[in-house]
Inverse folding.
């Protein structure tokens, strides 16, 4: 597939699947561990959430390509904070934000763990899709819990079956290739 995409000029691009930015293409850089959430998984997730996120504040803790955050913005989220530690990825995210005129998106060049430890804001939806290498999920999931509003949602994508933190249940879950994904809510 990658070879075919390179031949057709679509390498390092994803297509937004719904909302105001539907069918728009986003570029993303080559980077180790950067694997955009596939179309089918994003479609499933936003079907679970409902297509209208009007008024919701969202945090995309490991933005990478920005696929999840821009999908939320496309569906009328009032605020989307995207955290990304790679300077190259941040520059591409900013170009995509400008191209989409996504004014509700705030792109922050930062280490997600450090930022989440300092953050005082609360969110209605947190996307946790860290690189699969390392144990970032173990450290970031409790931090995300602390940033969620009482009735907030947490989307998690990992290389192994997802175990919800204390006080949370899996609302819905699925698999795609080597990825496990789940939408969590408070019990």
């Amino acid at each position: 597939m990658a070879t075919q995409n390179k031949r057709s000029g679509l390498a390092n691009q994803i297509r937004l699947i719904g909302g105001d930015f539907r069918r728009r293409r986003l570029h993303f850089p080559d980077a180790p561990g950067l694997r955009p959430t596939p179309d089918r998984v994003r479609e499933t997730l936003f079907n679970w959430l409902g297509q209208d996120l009007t008024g919701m504040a969202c945090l995309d803790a490991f933005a990478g390509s920005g696929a999840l955050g821009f999908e939320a913005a496309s569906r009328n989220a009032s605020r989307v904070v995207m955290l990304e530690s790679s300077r190259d990825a941040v520059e591409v995210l900013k170009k995509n934000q400008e191209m989409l005129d996504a004014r509700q998106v705030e792109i922050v060049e930062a280490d997600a763990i450090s930022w989440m430890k300092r953050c005082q804001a609360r969110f209605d939806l947190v996307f946790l899709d860290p690189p699969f290498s390392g144990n970032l999920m173990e450290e970031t999931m409790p931090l995300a819990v602390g940033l969620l509003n009482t009735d907030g949602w947490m989307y998690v994508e990992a290389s192994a079956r997802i175990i919800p933190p204390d006080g949370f249940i899996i609302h819905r879950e699925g698999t795609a290739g080597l990825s496990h994904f789940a939408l969590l809510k408070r019990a």
Summary: The radius of gyration is 15 Å.
